[in-house]
Design a protein that fits this description.
Blueprint lengths: L5 E2 L2 E2 H8 L3 E5 H15 L2 E5 L6 H10 L2 E4 L2 H9 L7 E3 L6 H9 L4 E4 L2 H13 L4 E8 L21 E2 L3 H9 L4 E7 L9 H20 L6 E3 L16 H12 L5 E4 L3 H4 L3 E12 L4 E5 L8 H5 L5 E2 L7 E7 L8 E9 L6 E4 L20 E6 L2 E6 L4 H5 L8
Parallel strand pairs: 3-19, 4-5, 4-12, 5-6, 6-7, 7-8, 8-9, 8-10, 10-11, 11-12, 14-16
Antiparallel strand pairs: 1-2, 3-13, 13-14, 13-18, 15-18, 16-17, 19-20
Helix pairs in contact: 2-3, 5-6, 8-9
Bound molecules: ligand LLP.
Length: 406
């Protein structure tokens, strides 16, 4: 059957013919509108958190719109630099930066490195000294505040590995003051992802204000206060993160401050911009369940398996007969399940299903499990499709292995 469904005037069948399935498709307009909406309402600086979607085309798109870029690994830093992001707009954080990562950040003189351990100060200072540089440092603080979200993506409590623990703040401040090649610029936090509660943010804001005062009292002036990302996106589309209320809350606490306020969202900017097109490989029934096996799996999109977060799935078919199906991938794990017993128009082998809202933590978390290749990714702008990542070739994977003569 021909699929009449179009993505911004491009026929899906044409896309599939050109790029095969599974296929990630992103909308330029949605990405741009998300950024514009966020900056127009919040009126604060944004550093796009690259981990949500690290395709260089997407990094470049946000960068050209004026966004700063937040990276959490040397590899993400290299991607951002390759995408021609001005180093002065890059913030680098993460609990485990290697010396090579730090050396690159210092050499490129990026805007700021956020430290997450006390020992990192010594390492950065020594590296900067040997490179004859002075580098801007921020401190990511673990404020011991519950983000009230899924435990796997909650980061702001004492028992989480992230940020400098409150008990170590004085030690951190003293260490910074005695380090000649670093320049303290500010403090940051990120207490988790998928936060919907504004009272959680209120608690966080109050804590960060208290901490800013503590730093000033101890002789370090905060020029930049970063409030992290985490703004929730409801995949079931039952509730919305209210940006206007969020903005009012920000203004209530931070309207007359003389330091830069920023956020580093990932999901909010990208989640709704992506679709995953997948083809039906098999249809089979157990005594109880009708299974549809599609060619995307937990290797392509791991979120349902890892966080039990179900993405909406729809079929472009318009036939009247309906049936209940569970949608699963081809990977040899029971967790490779995208949806349990959803109602769809009656499906056949080779039909297409579309998984929604995969723009964040979809492709960037995909893997080669079961030796599956990573799919192609395309960006649609003005009704034109642009290939932004080539589909992997199995031969590239195969040739990386070496069989030694044993
Ligand atoms: N800043 C830092 C330091 C982060 O660790 C993160 C996300 C963000 C900003 C952006 O958070 P967002 O605005 O996207 O919530 N893979 C999970 C999400 C993990 C988030 C990790 N850190 C998922 O698919 O739900």
């Amino acid at each position: 059957m021909k699929n009449k469904l179009q993505i911004e005037k491009i026929n899906i069948d044409k896309l599939i013919k050109k790029y095969q399935t599974p296929l990630y498709v992103y909308s330029y307009n949605k990405l741009k509108n998300n950024y514009k909406k966020l900056t127009n309402i919040l009126k604060k600086n944004i550093y796009y958190s690259v981990k949500a979607n690290s395709n260089q085309a997407i990094i470049s798109l946000f960068s050209k719109l004026g966004s700063g870029i937040d990276v959490v690994s040397g590899e993400e830093l290299q991607r951002a630099l390759k995408a021609k992001v001005n180093p002065n707009k890059i913030i680098f954080e993460g609990v485990g930066k290697s010396k090579d990562d730090l050396r690159l950040a210092i050499k490129k003189d990026i805007r700021q490195i956020n430290i997450e351990s006390v020992d990192e100060i010594k390492i950065i200072n020594q590296l900067a000294k040997s490179l004859k540089r002075k580098i801007n440092i921020g401190i990511r603080i673990n404020p011991n505040i519950d983000g009230k979200t899924n435990k796997k993506i909650s980061t702001g409590l004492d028992h989480n590995k992230f940020g400098i623990n409150l008990k170590d703040l004085k030690k951190t401040i003293d260490k910074i003051k005695s380090s000649s090649n670093i320049n303290f610029v500010g403090i940051s936090c990120h207490i988790g992802s998928q936060i919907f509660s504004l009272s959680v943010y209120k608690r966080l804001f109050l804590k960060m204000i208290e901490l800013e005062k503590f730093f000033t009292k101890n002789g370090l002036v905060v020029k930049h206060l970063d409030l992290g990302g985490g703004m929730g996106y409801d995949y079931a589309k039952k509730m919305k993160f209210d940006l206007y209320k969020f903005s009012r809350l920000i203004n209530k606490y931070f309207s007359n401050v003389d330091y830069e306020i920023s956020f580093e969202p990932g999901r909010f900017l990208t989640a709704n911009s992506g679709l995953l097109i997948t083809k039906i490989l098999m249809i089979k029934s157990s005594r109880k369940i009708n299974f549809i096996v599609v060619d995307a799996g937990m290797n392509t999109l791991i979120r349902p398996a890892l966080y039990n977060e179900m993405h909406n799935i729809f079929s472009p078919k318009k036939n009247k007969g309906k049936k209940k199906y569970s949608i699963v991938g081809p990977i040899c794990e029971t967790s490779d399940t995208f949806a349990k017993e959803i109602v769809l128009p009656k499906q056949s082998i080779d039909d297409i299903l579309i998984i929604e809202d995969v723009g964040a933590y979809g492709s960037s978390m995909s893997s080669n499990y079961n030796s599956k290749v990573l799919p192609a990714e395309i960006l649609i702008k003005d009704n034109k499709d642009y290939l932004i990542r080539k589909r992997q070739d199995i031969n590239e994977l195969i040739k990386r292995d070496k069989i030694p003569k044993l």
